[in-house]
Design a protein that fits this description.
The complex is a heterodimer of chains A (220) and B (142).
Chain A: E1 2-6, H1 10-21, E2 25-30, H2 33-43, E3 47-49, H3 55-60, E4 69-72, H4 77-90, E5 95-99, H5 106-111, E6 117-118, H6 120-131, E7 137-143, E8 148-154, E9 175-182, E10 185-188, E11 200-205, H7 210-217
Parallel strand pairs in A: 1-2, 1-4, 2-3, 4-5, 5-6
Antiparallel strand pairs in A: 7-8, 8-11, 9-10, 9-11
Chain B: E1 2-6, H1 10-21, E2 25-30, E3 46-49, H2 55-60, E4 68-71, H3 76-89, E5 94-98, H4 102-110, E6 114-116, H5 118-131, H6 137-141
Parallel strand pairs in B: 1-2, 1-4, 2-3, 4-5, 5-6
The chains are: A alpha/beta (220), B alpha/beta (142).
């Protein structure tokens, strides 16, 4: 597989290293001369110096072949968006992955149809929420393309759903319970499953239905 | 008519002043508070400090009912993204984006973004200036 990696910071250089170890062919593009010089000995002909948002730099790196995938991993979100747009729409690169540095820019990546994206800050925040739940409903996974998300809810003693069977709950349309974790054991949630205080319930739902789900499971 | 100008450098500030003179209601956004001084002592329009990628700031500057948006920060890629946000998210019909790189300007104008590339204009003007030079006959012939 041929890969272009834009951005030779910690993320880009380590990803490039890992891909090379797996035997892939790649070109790493780094703009800053200090970083480029540090990486040149290691990457030799597999690193080029330049601004990966310039078309001639991308062409020199073989964007017209086109590569199987372009990874936009610079520390600048606008640059990453432009790299992905040029790769996909000008050169027909079949797959791109973009790094999101500032989670507030996620909406812009979505607006421009750039997917998948990886945001370290958002991933860490999701883990923090999971480990130290501040909120009663934790987002575990977003399936952007499917327009679905998987959330975890903790049932309390005073939750309206405690002691009720799943089939007796009036769950919002577009939401289903997946599993119930009780005393360290998970079971698939079926109609006859009775929820109890202390249960951790996984649910799949359309984004935007969280409040309705919360009302049914957690408070009346 | 309402205009929003993002980026208040030499270019952005001049556009803002000119539109305001022509009777537009102009709001200006820049990251740097000092940029306000480029608009003179009595700027009658609004001026907001912040980054043009910040949607809340764009809203506060009135992008929802802007008739035109001019994007002229000093970063080409920032301008490309803000221009597309204005066009696609806020449905602004008249979005004009300043891009210094002719290659990116061409690519994005093919994709429906109204780009203006001062570099291309400068190149054409300079070539015209060279052509207009009166050269000695021998040099021209040789």
């Amino acid at each position: 597989m041929y890969v272009i990696v834009a951005g030779g910071g910690k993320v880009g250089a380590n990803v490039a290293r890992s891909l090379l170890r797996l035997g892939h062919e790649l070109t790493l593009i780094e703009q800053r001369s200090d970083r480029f010089e540090r990486l040149e000995d290691e990457f030799e002909h597999q690193i080029q110096r330049g601004d990966a948002t310039e078309l001639y730099v991308l062409e020199r790196a073989g964007i017209a072949r086109p590569p199987d995938i372009v990874l936009a991993l610079t520390g600048d979100d606008e640059d990453n968006m432009v790299i992905c747009q040029i790769a996909k729409e000008k050169y027909g690169v079949p797959k791109v992955i973009a790094r999101v540095n500032d989670p507030r820019n996620q909406a812009h990546f979505d607006l421009l149809g750039i997917s998948p994206t990886v945001c370290a800050t958002s991933s860490i925040m999701a883990l923090v929420e999971h480990e130290v739940p501040e909120h009663d409903l934790i987002h575990l996974l977003e399936l952007r393309r499917e327009n679905l998300e998987i959330v975890e809810v903790q049932i309390d003693r005073d939750s309206p759903s405690a002691g009720k069977r799943v089939e007796g709950l009036s769950l919002p349309e577009g939401a289903r319970l997946i599993s119930v974790m009780r005393n360290g054991r998970a079971e698939i949630a079926v109609g006859a499953t009775t929820l109890e205080a202390g249960d951790q319930v996984l649910a799949i739902l359309e984004p935007g239905k969280e409040d309705e789900l919360r009302r049914v499971l957690l408070r009346s | 008519m309402k205009a929003l100008v993002v980026g208040c450098g030499r270019v952005g500030s001049s556009i803002a002043l000119e539109l305001q003179r022509e009777g537009w209601d102009v709001a200006v956004v820049d990251e740097n508070e000092d940029a306000l001084s480029r608009l003179g002592d009595h700027w009658p329009g609004s001026f907001l400090v912040g980054h043009g990628m910040d949607v809340d700031l764009l809203r506060a500057a009135g992008i929802d009912d802007a008739d035109a948006v001019v994007v002229a920060t000093d970063g080409d890629n920032t301008n490309i993204v803000i221009g597309q946000v204005a066009q696609k998210r806020f449905d602004i019909q008249c979005v004009v984006v300043r891009l210094l790189d002719p290659a990116r300007a061409r690519f994005y104008s093919e994709r429906g973004l109204r780009t203006v590339c001062p570099t291309s204009v400068a190149i054409e003007t300079l070539i015209e200036a060279v052509r207009a030079c009166e050269l000695p006959a021998t040099t021209a012939a040789g």
